[in-house]
Amino acid sequence: MQPFKVLVVFGTRPEAIKLAPLIKELSRHPQEFSCQVAVTAQHREMLDQVLRLFQITPDYDLDIMSKGQTLEQVTSRALNGLARVLQTARPDIVLVHGDTTTTFAAALAAFYRQIKVGHVEAGLRTGNRYAPFPEEMNRRLAAALTDIHFAPTATARDNLLAEGIPARDIYVTGNTVIDALQATVRPDYRFSDPRLQAIDFKRRRVILVTAHRRENWGQPLREIFTALVEIIQRYQDVEVIFPVHYNPRVRQVATELLGGRERITLVDPLDYEPFANLMARSYLVMTDSGGLQEEAPALGKPVLVLRDVTERPEAVAAGTVRLVGTDRLNIIQASCELLEKQQLYLQMARAVNPYGDGRACSRIGAALKHYLGLRQTRPQDFQPCEKDS
Ligand code: UD1
Ligand code: UDP
After folding, report:
1. Which of 13, 102, 297, 369 has the fewest CB within 10 Å, making it most exposed?
2. What are the pocket residues of ligand 1 if the criterion is a CB atom closer than 6 Å to any ligand atom?
3. pLDDT tier at 386, thresholds 50, 70, 90
4. Long-range pairs of 24-32 with CB within 8 A, sequence gap ≥ 24
5. What is the pLDDT of residues 67-94, one digit of tens each?
């Protein structure tokens, strides 16, 4: 029998990080799967960083990114480009990940050609179609176009069931980000960037910051950055490291409000390896990112989430993630509590793993085989370890 032709499609940094270990896993089973990779390159430099690290050479690269691109541009370029790729590659199944515009466009392109779609990291919901925007809707649209749903957690599975998706089409796998993280964080890791090498983590408390969400462009980012300046002024042993997303809407405000300040270091987006290892050594994480809400709890790092709602409630329930929104005073108050109240800090700094155990990719591989009739038994659902979550 010919192996099943799997085309993995992605476009941005987080999709690449979370799909890289899955591509490796599928490639380990050449009798069952022949795996190809198509990137839209909705991100360019930030995608290439991950491709280099995980040594992935795409079979197709649409190279669609333009500076300051609109949602419509990304959607139409990805859809048209992927139509051509699908015509050439003729896969049996297309795998997409998460909630980006590439995710939605790839699922739609596959549907138009009546090719099956597998959605990795399926079923996350806030219930608010404008938050995160447009990611909540990208996920819902992708779900409607998907044949096989890889839900990372039981909560995500329940969200899909509530939307009428049959249980037989959903596999609970854990999140592949934990597979990526476990392969990347090492206690003996040495930074090659002299600015990171120079940090004395024993004497300095590092707040690792990332922010890029569309909902936060403009005034919310200003509130966040002003809060950071005040926090730094209050605590002389605190240092902020902020790898600034390449989006000009973020960079302009970050440079204006945070540039040239003592103990605030703005750096370009870091490669995943130094970034994950920096997170492992930080005191706390402040972010509006999705992925960091999954990674930091696994590393035992408290997270203050700069959003009003999250599609990742598991770590909030476990007590390591707290939603603080974007109000300057709220951010300052929550940060001060973590910097001053040791007991509270320790409660939030427990390592919890509601999102995965490092074996999500092997479960997805097994689920694919089951779905495609290559194995009889359904793989066991991922269940977080009781003591961890
Ligand atoms: C996109 C995703 C978002 C995801 C985020 C991860 C959509 C609508 N948004 O948001 O869900 O959380 O990626 O980071 O799919 N840029 C560069 N180089 C890069 C990457 C971006 O210069 O390598 C700049 C470009 O000017 C680009 C802009 O950033 O136009 C925005 O990129 P885009 O992918 O449209 O939006 P993100 O905010 O990155
Ligand atoms: N990340 C990285 N370098 C950075 C910042 C983040 O490698 O400078 C990683 C981070 O560890 C996580 C992912 O990028 O795995 C999150 O990406 P992002 O915040 O851009 O997107 P989101 O998760 O919000 O969709």
Report:
1. 369
2. 12-14, 42-46, 65, 67-69, 71, 74, 99-101, 134-135, 212, 246-248
3. low
4. 24/54, 24/361, 25/361, 25/362, 25/364, 25/365, 26/365, 26/368, 29/365, 30/3, 31/3, 32/3, 32/4, 32/369, 32/374
5. 999 999 999 999 999 999 999 999 999 9
